[in-house]
Design brief:
single chain, alpha+beta, Aldehyde Oxidoreductase, domain 4, Aldehyde Oxidoreductase, domain 3, 3 domains, seven-stranded mixed β-sheet, six-stranded mixed β-sheet, 20 helices, about 25% strand, binds dioxothiomolybdenum(VI) ion
């Protein structure tokens, strides 16, 4: 039977999954390749150490960079002593604002289609200091050790100016409304304050989350060199195309003069975009006339690459006697700099979560002098779901209702704010399946009821949600050879999430070719398209482009095939890929192989390129990834230590394209969520604006002993309105985890911790 299914030809009309069309058949049928748990094709290279990362590119005449960072938050440099560094062994160049080439600021992310900069401040152009940790000098030397030594000899003296480094003081000074992608985040529907006041059941509390820093295992790095006026950047990035364009703006070049590649990325999570280090390395390479390698130290990542900002969120929920929400108020303040564009949008998840009569949502911004905060896995949702989903748990307690039942009672039948239909939402099914598998019915509803020796045991749940996005700019090239092999090329990214593997599966399925006859090229700004590995949208963006390119390929193949073929007279939407050729969809015996078509036409190969359609689907439907998160924790009654003993994520993310890589994405997100719940916290000295724990010794992330076996399941229900029926799986995993853990801690102890991370001091 499986064989029979696989023998079905696969094709689709262009954008048939778009408004008004049929779903992509790849999403509907069972296939041999789509969904299969295929191991990552880049796996062997990585475990053998053969995959070459940005800081490993060999180059003749390479020099190594080290950075000196400011130790004040605001003011100006009055003296920079560089003589000792210049005289130190191996030193090739010391670059400061005095000799750096003139450069424009980096185009700030989201302010232009291909902008990739994390901050719009000038880079080493003047003596002004804008944050504690700003690069003030760069040393190039013949070895990394010599560069590190020389940079330690640089002495800076400053004239300080008053800096705003206290969140409370910045709030007191006055906040401004948060804007996300140019739109105000504030929304009001009805009279939420009035509805809350009148509601018989209510909760109203403030939840706080700390700063988080990015800690991908691969440090931010680049190897750069100039060939005349052409700049080559071997980068570690989530955005090759955006980076090439943005760096071109900085140096006044044409986009085509900057070539960025990034074949492997050792973790990105939103941080591997354009920060000062790539720009400084390129500037220094130009001055020195030599190729430059820059690898930020772990401290360097904390100093110049932003992280997630601090949030203070009020959630007030009012419900009627049956638990139906009458009011949802989710407002609060985040810290941000004046030079970036991400006011941690913690209300995004709340916009689509529950049916309610009234809403009041708002994000206010307090402006601080600090390193520009930025995207970090599920920006907004990761911390927003902590507040919202803890509040739902508190409301369930107030109502004496099971928290899952409360959520199901408030399940909306259309988008609560936009009124648009959901493209695909099976969150209730995810809850039911998760509850059964986790053994939710063994949970004691009263806190503190279960004890094993010193350990109090509790269970909690929370909803996970992350929007479906698809950004414009996707394009793909397909080369089909007479040898029956296909090569697909897209300027996309592999950060270890399985992009190359999944896209090879998809292309092979669509073309009707075996997996090993298809290759996938990516991570190079000269390839088609400008696709961001961010917003959990890369798979959809590539998918739409590959669908368009494949459609064009089929049309051209039919033209080449002519009339002397079993395919004569057929149109592109009547045929599909099958066993190395094209076949009529409902009559597969009418078939001709690709090799035969190309041979008869006297062609070695056929190359097509096409752009993905505009993302109209998001205007017609409310589209999100969903999950139901379940945590079991043990809290030590003597020490307050929290151990997560079991965790289950039950997901509804459309069609799962590769069961193995998707499960890893879910688990990775959940592990990061456990860090958010229990340990991650940037210690920011509010007197000086200095980050005090810039190392993995003092900034704690979960290690193996902190992570229990994580069970993940999914509905695998295709969304008919996305390419391949899939939703993003990259960020959903971190959402809801903080609340699931906090709710379990409450169930174990009766203590409601509304301030992350849940460290043991808060439980004693
Ligand atoms: Mo993600 S924070 O969109 O890389």
């Amino acid at each position: 039977a499986a064989q029979a299914v696989m023998k079905k030809a696969v094709q689709l009309a262009p954008d048939s999954w778009m408004p008004g069309g049929e779903p992509d058949p790849l999403s509907r049928q069972k296939h041999g390749l789509v969904g299969a748990p295929i191991s990552r094709i880049d796996g062997p290279l990585k475990v053998q150490g053969a995959a070459r990362f940005a800081a490993e590119m060999p180059m003749d005449g390479l020099v190594y960079a080290a950075l000196a960072y400011s130790t004040i938050a605001k003011g100006r440099i009055v003296h920079l002593e560089t003589g000792a560094a210049e005289a130190a062994p191996g030193v090739v160049l010391v670059m400061t604002h005095r000799n750096a080439p003139r450069m424009k600021p980096m185009p700030l992310f989201m302010t232009a289609e291909k902008a990739a900069g994390g901050s719009s401040l000038p880079i080493m152009q003047d003596a002004e200091i804008h944050w504690n940790g700003q690069p003030v000098a760069l040393v190039l030397a013949e070895s990394q050790e010599e560069a590190d030594h020389a940079v330690s000899l640089i002495e800076a003296r400053y004239e300080t100016a008053p800096a705003m480094t206290s969140f409370a003081a910045a709030k007191a000074k006055g906040t401004t409304p948060g804007l996300f992608m140019g739109q105000p985040l504030g929304t009001k529907v009805g009279d939420a304050a009035g509805a809350l006041a009148a509601a018989p059941h209510k909760v109203d509390a403030v939840y706080t989350t700390p700063r988080h820093n990015h800690n991908p295992i691969e440090l931010h790095a680049a190897t750069v060199h100039w060939q005349g006026d052409r700049l080559r950047i071997h980068d570690a990035t989530q955005a090759v195309g955006h980076t090439a364009w943005s760096v071109a703006q900085v140096f006044g070049l044409d986009e085509a003069q900057v070539h960025v590649t990034s074949p492997y990325v050792g973790g990105g999570f939103g941080s591997k975009t354009l920060w000062p280090h790539q720009v400084l390395a390129a500037a220094a390479a130009r001055l020195a006339g030599r190729p430059v390698r820059i690898v930020l130290s772990r401290e360097g990542v904390y100093r110049i690459v932003g992280g997630r900002t601090v949030t203070e969120q009020r959630v007030a929920l009012g419900a009627d006697g049956e638990g139906r929400l009458q009011a949802v108020i989710h407002t609060g303040t985040v810290a941000m700099t004046a030079h970036n564009a991400l006011p941690e949008p913690f209300i995004l998840a709340t916009r689509g979560a529950y049916a309610a009569r009234t809403f009041e949502l708002d994000v206010e911004v307090a402006t601080l002098d600090m390193v520009a905060n930025t995207f970090m896995r599920a920006p907004g949702e990761a911390v927003g779901t902590f507040a919202l989903e803890c509040a739902m748990d508190e409301l369930a307690v107030e109502l004496g209702m099971d928290p899952i039942e409360l959520r199901i009672r408030n399940e909306p039948d259309k988008d609560p704010l936009e009124g648009t239909p959901f493209s695909s939402r099976n969150i209730v099914a995810a809850y039911r399946a998760g509850a059964e598998r986790f053994g939710w019915n063994e949970r004691h509803p009263s806190p503190g009821a279960r004890r094993e020796g010193e350990w109090l045991v509790g269970m909690g749940c929370a909803t996970a949600t992350y929007p479906y996005y698809r950004m414009p700019g996707g394009a793909a090239r397909i080369r089909l050879g007479r040898d029956g092999r296909a090569h697909v090329a897209v300027a996309a990214h592999e950060m270890g999430m399985g992009t190359a593997t999944v896209q090879t599966q998809i292309a092979a399925e669509r073309l009707g070719l075996p997996l090993d006859h298809v290759s996938f090229a990516y991570g190079d700004s000269t390839l088609p398209g400008t696709i961001l590995a961010g917003g959990s949208q890369q798979t959809a963006a590539i998918g739409a482009a590959v669908i368009a390119a494949h459609r064009k390929l089929v049309e051209e193949l039919l033209t080449l095939a002519g009339n002397d073929t079993p395919l004569a007279g057929l149109k592109a939407d009547e045929v599909g890929g099958l066993d190395g050729g094209l076949a009529k969809l409902d009559e597969p015996e009418r078939r001709e192989s690709y090799a035969s078509i190309l041979m008869r036409a006297g062609r070695e190969d056929l190359v097509v390129e096409a752009e993905g359609s505009q993302p109209l689907e998001t205007q017609h439907w409310s589209m999100h990834s969903y999950g139901a998160m379940f945590a079991e924790v043990k809290v030590n009654a003597v020490t307050g230590e929290v151990r997560v003993s079991r965790f289950l994520g039950s997901f509804d993310c459309g069609r799962i394209l590769n069961a193995k890589t998707a499960a890893s994405q879910f688990r990775g997100g959940i592990i990061m969520g456990l860090g958010l719940a229990l340990m991650e916290e940037t210690q920011f000295d509010e007197r000086t604006g200095r980050i005090m724990n810039p190392s993995l010794a003092e900034y704690h992330v979960p290690v193996h002993l902190d992570v229990p076996a994580i069970d993940v399941i999914w509905t695998d229900i295709p969304d008919p309105h996305t390419p391949m029926g899939a939703h993003g799986v990259g960020e959903i995993g971190i959402t809801g985890v903080g609340a699931a853990v906090a709710n379990a801690v409450f169930n174990a102890t009766g203590k409601r911790i509304r301030d992350l991370p849940i460290t043991l001091d808060k439980l004693l």
